[in-house]
């Protein structure tokens, strides 16, 4: 088998894992057949291999779900993530100052992947979870992160976005997103005003470390009844300071010289 064939097989297997892990409901063989467009024989072999390796579980009723081995991989990746470790003390300080939920995320294509989350002292139901991804165009960290992109890279990213209205406040097209990003660049921070989840607001700042090709951000999130304009204004300075300190620590802590010690 050629290296290109091996790469193609691996890519198909990863695509299968992504479909199974991302599905809200467990998928059956017929569902995966439609989603992948693969021949039945090839799909069956790949699924069998994934089940044998523990990456996918096959339930008695014929539904495929993420396997426990994926959980082990995720746990190890999270525990060993250097960026998360460097951000952690600044997240805790921001959490102490605000008392609200703090998120730390990284830009991946047209989504923000949450690397860490510190819950509010007061329980609030949110969609976000560590490891989950959210759209860039309707989240505070997402908008803060892409506001730092070059025009060419931003244009490429916007072409990947499929605008969906999660709430009445969600940005619905590229023109509205461009206007929002202009304001974010002027102010130096971003807000999510019930754009991704009704009743939830946040203030976010970008974290950019060019030497590490890292673009992401940090945010403070709370329900709208605790996050009025005056309260959000109080969060701006500590959020921006946390973002700056994390960027500084990442620039040093992830440098080759530091890692070789």
Structural overview:
The chain has 261 residues and is an alpha+beta fold. It has two domains: 8-71, Arc Repressor Mutant, subunit A (Orthogonal Bundle); 81-251, GAF domain (Beta-Lactamase, 2-Layer Sandwich), CATH 3.30.450.40. The chain has helices spanning 3-22, 29-36, 40-52, 68-80, 82-98, 140-146, 151-160, 174-187, 229-253, 256-260, and strands at residues 27-28, 56-58, 63-66, 101-108, 111-118, 133-135, 190-193, 200-209, 214-223. A hairpin with a 4-residue loop joins strand 8 (200-209) and strand 9. The N and C termini lie far apart (41 Å).
Task: Output mean pLDDT.
Answer: 87
Given helix and strand content, the structural type is: alpha+beta
CATH superfamily of the largest domain: GAF domain
| Succession of helices and strands | HEHHEEHHEEEHHHEEEHH
For the CA atoms, what is the radius of gyration?
Answer: 20 Å
Strand content: 15-25%
The share of residues in helices is 40-55%
Number of helices: 10
Net shape: globular
CATH topology annotation of the largest domain = Beta-Lactamase
């Amino acid at each position: 088998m050629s290296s290109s064939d091996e790469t193609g097989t691996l890519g198909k297997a990863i695509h299968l894992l992504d479909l199974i892990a991302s599905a809200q409901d467990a998928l059956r063989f017929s569902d995966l057949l439609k989603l992948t467009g693969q021949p039945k024989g090839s799909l069956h072999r790949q699924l069998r291999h994934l089940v044998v390796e523990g990456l996918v579980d096959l339930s008695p009723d014929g539904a495929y779900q993420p396997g426990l081995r994926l959980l082990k991989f995720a746990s190890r990746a999270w525990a060993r993530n250097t960026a998360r470790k460097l951000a952690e003390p600044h997240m805790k300080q921001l959490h102490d100052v605000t008392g609200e939920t703090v998120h730390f995320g990284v830009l991946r294509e047209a989504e923000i992947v949450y690397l860490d989350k510190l819950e509010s002292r007061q329980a609030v139901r949110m969609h976000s979870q560590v490891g989950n991804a959210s759209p860039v165009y309707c989240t505070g960290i997402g908008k803060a992160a892409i506001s730092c992109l070059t025009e060419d890279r931003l244009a490429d990213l916007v072409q990947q976005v499929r605008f969906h209205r999660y709430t009445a406040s969600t940005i619905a097209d590229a023109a509205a997103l461009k206007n929002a990003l202009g304001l974010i660049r002027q102010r130096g921070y971003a807000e999510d005003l019930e754009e991704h989840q009704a009743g939830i607001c946040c203030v976010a700042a970008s974290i950019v470390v060019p030497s590490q090709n890292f673009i992401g951000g940090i945010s403070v999130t709370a329900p709208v009844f605790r996050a009025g304009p005056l309260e959000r204004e109080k969060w701006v300075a500590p959020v921006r300071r946390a973002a700056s300190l994390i960027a500084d620590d990442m620039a040093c802590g992830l440098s080759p010289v530091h890692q070789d010690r």
